[in-house]
Amino acid sequence: MRTTRLYLSPPDAGPRDRELLLDAFDSNWLAPLGPHVDAFEKEVAAVVGVDHCLALASGTAGLHLSLILHGVGPGDQVLVPTLTFAATANAVRYVGAEPVFVDCTLGTWTIDPDLLDEELTTARRSNRRVKAVITVDLYGQCCDYGRIVEICKRHDVVLIEDAAEALGATCNGKPAGSYGAMGVFSFNGNKIVTTSGGGMLVSHDARLIERARHLATQAREPAPHYEHRDIGYNYRLSNLLAAVGRGQLESLAQRVERRRFHNRKYRERLESLDGLTFMPEAPYGRCTFWLTCLTIDRKRFGTDRESVRRHLDARLIEARPVWKPMHLQPVFSSCRCAGGAVAQSLFDSGLCLPSGSNMTDAERDEVIELVLEARSS
To answer: Which CATH architecture fits 15-248?
Structure first.
């Protein structure tokens, strides 16, 4: 009988993380910034294949700064996938702009390129001012950037890539985060690489990152006193947390492989069951499967998503519905949405299973047996 809770995606910390954290502590670089921050930025840039990075206190801060840097503000619209975490849409509201939500595809669970193209065309014809598109690389799966980059160029809108959940994923051989004018990663405690709390803003454009660096450090001007010409933000990552992130990043490949291994084993045992369908892996990319997700058809499987989730929860195992679409959230109920039925169906039947890189084979097999038990109970 389990006595401790098995979480969906807990931190996976090891000796190397502790070693670097103590190095930062012993050096007395306890305040924001320091040598580990500088090194972490360079190391993430190398992994993502971009030229410039900025370590931040959260991924949300990166989204906020990206919109500011591209002049998005009141009267503007930003297209956002409806199937995402609230932070993506919240950042649009931070700058006074209006999010417009776009449905996903069943084949990838990411933003539908056809609907995106249609919505941008409709907006132009109706004189709605769409300034940016924020894509979301959901659950470790990249969007179809082979199409989306061309669509954004044709409509002359900036592309910002929310890769918060997708460090280590690829699309057409290129890393997640490298497709947009700017890309954003999260190092929250539940991500594959964590700094406890933190994020990274990435870009090929040095000017954008340097401007973001200025705004993220309270927009202080180079003067012996405190001089400010812009409104700034306290958005930088601490040296202590960057040290942890560096240790985590060293084993990124192994962490991704472990999650992919869990996904494969879940599929081997459960995919043949009538009524269970796993989130597909897009043919154009390599997903990290940050979380293993599936949908449950009540009529075919014999029970519904909530019954399975509650069965796991009663046995101290965390499982969670997939993201509730933004167009169904009360705070965004007045916003326009292109489509939405696909995302709603995934929310109604979708479940995220424990997927941590430090989850044991025995723990994963326990989850599988309880899913099977829920079906027969």
So the answer is: 3-Layer(aba) Sandwich (3.40)
Which residues neighbour 273 within 8 Å (Cβ) at sequence distance 6 or greater? 301, 372, 375
Site of tokens 């950037």:
145
Q: At what angle do helices 113-125 and 145-155 cross, to 10 degrees?
A: 10
pLDDT, one tens digit per residue, over 234-288 is 999 999 999 999 999 999 999 999 999 999 999 999 999 999 999 999 999 999 9
Nearest CA to 209 out of 87, 71, 88, 65 is that of 65
Instruction: Phi first, then psi: give them for residue 168, nearest 5 degrees.
Output: 100, -10
**Where does CATH 3.40.640.10 sit in the chain?**
15-248
pTM over 0.90: yes
Render pLDDT for 148-159 as a digit per residue (tens, 0 to 9): 999 999 999 999
Rounded CA separation 376/358 (Å):
29
Q: Sort strands 52-56 and 199-203 into parallel, antiparallel or unpaired.
A: antiparallel
Return residue ranges of the chain for CATH 3.90.1150.10.
252-376
Q: Is the dihedral of CA 314, 315, 316, 320 positive or negative?
A: negative
- Tokens standing for residue 41: 């930025």
Measured distance CA(255)–CA(257) in Å, rounded: 5
What are 6-63's pLDDT values in tens digits? 999 999 999 999 999 999 999 998 877 899 999 999 999 999 999 999 999 999 999 9
DSSP secondary structure, 30-78, as one string? -SBBSHHHHHHHHHHHHHHT-SEEEEES-HHHHHHHHHHHTT--TT-EE
283-312 burial: b if 16+ Cβ within 10 Å, else e: ebbbbbbbbbbbbbeeeebbbbbebbbebb
Residue 238, amino acid: S
Looking at the domain 252-376, which fold is it?
A: Aspartate Aminotransferase, domain 1 (3.90.1150)
Give the start-end residues of each E strand in 38-186: 52-56, 77-81, 98-102, 130-136, 158-162, 170-171, 174-175, 182-186
**Residue type (1 letter), 30:** L
